[in-house]
Every structure is written in structure tokens, then in C-alpha cells.
Amino acid sequence: MRWLAIHFPWLALELHGLPQDKPQALLDNRQRILLGNPVAEAAGVKSGQALATALALSPELTLLETDEARLRQSLEQLALWAGGFSARISVCPPRSLLLEIASMLHYFGGLEALLDQLSASLKRNGYNARMAVGETARGAELLARVQSWTEGNTERWWARLHGLEIGQLALPAKQSEQLRGVGLRTLGDLLKLPRNELAQRFGQPLLRELEKIVEPGAALPEPFIPPERFRQKVELAAEIIHSQGLLFPLRRLLEALEGFLHIRQQQVSQLHIALYQREGGGQQLTIGHAAGTASAAHWLELCRLQLEREKLKAPVLALQLEAEEGQGQKAHNADLFAPAQAQTTPAELISRLRSRLGAESVQPLGWCADHRPERANTLLGVTAEKTAGKTAAGGRDTLPVGLVRPGWLLTRPQRLAPSDQRTLHWLRGPERVSSGWWDGPVTRDYYVARWPDGRCGWVFRDSSGGWFIHGWFG
Amino acid sequence: MALVQLMEQGQLWRGAQDAGIQAEALESSGYPELDARLGGGWLKGQLIELLQSGEGRGELRLLWPLLRRAAPERPVFWIDPPHQPCALSFLQADIRPETQQLVRTHSLKERLWAIEQALKSGCAPLVLSWLGEQVTTPALRRLQLAAQTGGGLGLIMRPDSVRSQSSPAAYRLHLDSSDRGAEIALLKRRGGWPLPAAAVDLPAVI
After folding, report:
1. CA distance B167 to A251
2. Residues A18-37: pLDDT tens digits?
3. Do the beta carbons of residue A265 and residue A332 sit within 8 Å?
4. Cβ–Cβ of A380/B104 closer than 8 Å?
5. Which domains, and CATH codes, for chain B?
6. What is the domain extent for residue A161?
7. Which residues in chain B are closer than 8 Å to A373, comparing Cβ atoms?
8. What letter would DSSP give residue A397?
9. Do B83 and A408 touch (CB under 8 A)?
């Protein structure tokens, strides 16, 4: 078993991302029905029907149009998504993908497990698909167009392949007609005839086509080469007014991103989402992950948190997801003895908090060499974080000795009432701090004092003689 | 309902004679006299409520031994402290400032959410947070459950005006200070009766 074909019969409808429980149909440019989704078909809508007939059968019918370019674009998006499951993918327009799976079966733990994961992922993203495995790529592809085939048995597969009708071989219409004219019904019938006679009568192209179907080693399909950078756009069939409504189309893009990164063994730490809005407006969102990840589930969670805070300025017509350049993935194997408790890494937790509370809301503590206490105490910003270890390590060598600093620094020094001043018990001081003539000069005498209730504080007298509390010894 | 059933569900516990707690489930407070009164240390995965009036009574020095154990891959989260923690004082106490993650939120709702996320994640051994009087018991119970899920210690600092309110936290402490130093009363603890105030030997200010 080498190939898996995934055929998307309703791709042209599903790419619009509308809920599939309502009747939908695709119109061609002559206002005839091209394709109806299962709900519409159940109501009697058929391809080739006139628009009026279809609407009479199913008054709620949503009519959609899809051009070739869009179909191709969403098929390529699906090819990116498939990167999460196989390293060799081919795009077979208009509606199929081919995945080489022999090498992946071991990783996923067998064919059944692989197919389960594929179907679950497709279902999450709102796609209906038929999957067929096959010994030859073309054979699998043709079979998937007709029915699902997930049996591992080779003999039965060949028997089924030979049973394909001439009309199901995707040959030129004229040739199918000719073949049927001489009384051939199935692929099996065709293969029973001597090859050279077939070539004489129907030409070399037919022979080549047959070879592709039945020869496992013949003409492999061209592999899909993903673009250098991930930038994907989706047009929305219906305008989205609430930010939470963006999650469904985002999920598709994020899963495509996951496949894209998986194939390159990369992860990203920042995503840019551009929202295209009515009347030419636009909104930009940037979402970050502290350590970088490829996981669509993680990114979706972060997007959800960020979108909760975001208000849409106008209805959204389209959205584009762009990933920053990926970094190499840290080798992480699913660990058999992973500690049961740590389901989340600190980086994930920090990203989650930042997504909801804002980028500056979580910062590690840091310090720099400055005599003014309020300047010495800093927060390591989001960007400085990566160098945090170094700064702090370097800082420890130059750690001032003999200085007393309180655990709490007041954000702004508080004036000390003269009545309080008299009750204080002075423990230590003064320590003269005089610095910063270049930006915000400070001249202060610091004392450590105990309050009558036992609390210890850090107070100073400034150059004008005013007394202030600047910290507490917590 | 039989007593055994209640005990199995954890709604009823035995007093001090129960030595069923494993040593690895305990986190030493770093102060032997306090550990002895706690029955060996803090039980992990629990909420601790620390009540005091105003900062400056030794609440940070009480935590120093715990903070020293923090590593970059298991940082300590500070959620909405009332003042800025001073990095220099941490360095002097041999605590790495960069392992202290400071979180700022904009509302009580966000604060409770952040505390719950940090506790639940299981990657933070210690979550420090500050809550006022207006927190409801169900909200605290959620935090206690989150701490149990994550297995870390959740420390909540609150004003001592809430002393008369009941609380689902596993430990309740009252920290007071006088000329002689800091005193801790155990208002509620696992596996024993409340204990009256007793001195803890915190490091001196100077």
C-alpha cells in the first residue's frame, strides 16, 4: 500500500466555509446548477437543473459561485494541511490530493489510525472527503472519485480496480465512446487485450494512460512544492460581524500552517492576521507565542483569547494569515515518561496570559546598574526576554554590596506625614543617593525605619527636606 | 453516610494522628519552626491564604526559601502585587529575578482568570496573588480546585479584615509583626486544629 488519494467531491462548495447543514448549490455561468451539497441533493436538486427548478425544489437554497483559481487555491491550502500527514504530496486538480503513505504508516501506528486522524482533521475543518488507498497513484485517485476504499488487502484492491468502468477512467470523452463502441465495459476488459493491438487501434496515449493506472513504478505524480513563506488568504462567503466568527476560517488556515511547518520541521513565534473589511478598511492582528510552536490547537487558543478582546471595526470580507519566518523545531519527541502534571509549559502559559491581557502584561523582573532605585528596578520587556539570562548573570558580578534594599518598591514615593515621622524608630541611615543629572536628577538620603506596628519601611528625605516612603521590607 | 465514605471523599479528615501524607507531597517552608507547626511543610496542590494588614511585615522574607528554588523552566508568577518587587533585594537574597514573572491585569475578573490559569497549568510551582475583600467563596473554591489540578502552591495575600469570613483555602495564616519580629497564627491548616500566634525567625531587615 503506497498511495492514499483524498477526493473532495464538494470542495467547490465547502471552500466557502458555510455550515453544511443548509442546502447549497454551485451555479455555472449559464445559471444552471453545477453541483449541490448532500442536503440540496436530498431535496432533489441535481446538476444540470435550471435555477428556477432548483429554487422551486429547495427555496432555502444558497447559491454560490467558484472559479477555477479559487478551487486551485483551496486545493493547495489542503495540500499544505496534508503536510502534517505525509512528506510527499501531489495535487491532482480539480478536486483530489495524493499522499504517499508507505513511510508514514509506522509513525501513525497503522493504516486505520492514520485514516482516523485524517478524517477527524477533515471533519474539524468542515470538509467531506472520500479516501482510497492504492498500489498505484493514478489507480487510487480514480478509485477515490468513485468510492472510498480503506481495505489493506491488495488482491481485492486489484480486483476492484479492474472493475472500474471505462467511463470512470477519466479518459477523453471521445476515446471512452470508441472503447464502449467495440464492446469493452471495464478496465479489466481493456487490459485483457494485447497491448500492441490496443496501441495500433487507439494510439499510444491510451497505452501510456493505462500504464499509469496499473504499473506501480510508472510515471509518479509530480510532488507539490510548498511556497517559501506561508501567506494564505481566504475570502468569506458571508460577512463576519463578530470576532469569534473568524475562528472557523482561521482554524483551516492554522491547520494548513501546521502542515506547512511540519514538513519543514519548523515552528513560528509570531503570526500576522490581516482582516479585509467592507469599504476598503482593514485591521491587523499580531499574535505571539513566547517559545514558538507549530501546533494549530495552540495557535487557535491564542487567537481565541486575542479575538475576545478585539472589536471588529467593520464586517470582515476576507482574512489573510501570514507567518513570520519559521525557526528550526527543537527536537521534541513524544515523551513516554512525560511528567503527568506539566501539561503546559511556562512559555505556553505566558503566551496565553499575554493573548488575553496584552503583550506587556507578563514580564520577568530584571535590574540594571543605576543608582536611582526606581531605575535600577526594571521589567525585562517582551523583546529583551531572550537575553534575560545573560543580563542577569552579568549583573550578579557587579552586584553592589552593603546596600540595603526593601523587597517592595512603591511605584511612586508617598509623602510621610510629620505626625508619623515622630513615631518611627530609626534603624539605619543615611545612605546618600545622588545621581541622574542627565535625566531626572535625584538627591536623597535613605533611612530604614520601623513603624510602631512593627512594619519596616524605607524612607528618604529629598533635597528640599520633604520626607517620603519609598518601600516596604516585606 | 458512613464515616469511612466521608473520609474517602475527603470531606472529613483525621486529626494530627494521621501520618498518611508522603514526604514528597510536602514543600518545606524553609523555616523549621513553621514546618513543625504545619506538619512537615506545605502540602502541594493547595491554596494558602495569608492575611495581614499592610505590606512590610515580612511576607516576602517568609517566601524567600521557596523563591530560591524557582528555576527558569518553572517560574514563579506574581499576579498583581500591590507594589513593584525590587530585583536588587532579590539578588541580595540569592533569588534570580528573571525567574519571577510579573503579571498585570486590568480587572478582578481578569485577575481571577490569570490566577486560575497559572495554578491549573502545572508548570508554576508557586503562584503569588493579591486579592481584596470582594472575592466570593465560589471564586476561591475555583482557585483551590485549580491548585489541586496543577499541583503547585497558590498563595493569596488578603487584608486581615476578611479574617471572619470562611474560606475554602486549605491553609489560612495571619501574619503580624511587632518590635520582637514576625508572628504567624495558623487559622486553618490540614490535619490539625488552628494554632495560636507564634514567632517565626525571619531574616533580619538589616
Report:
1. 41
2. 877 888 888 888 888 888 88
3. no
4. no
5. 23-200 (3.40.50.300)
6. 3-16+90-214
7. 86, 88
8. H
9. yes
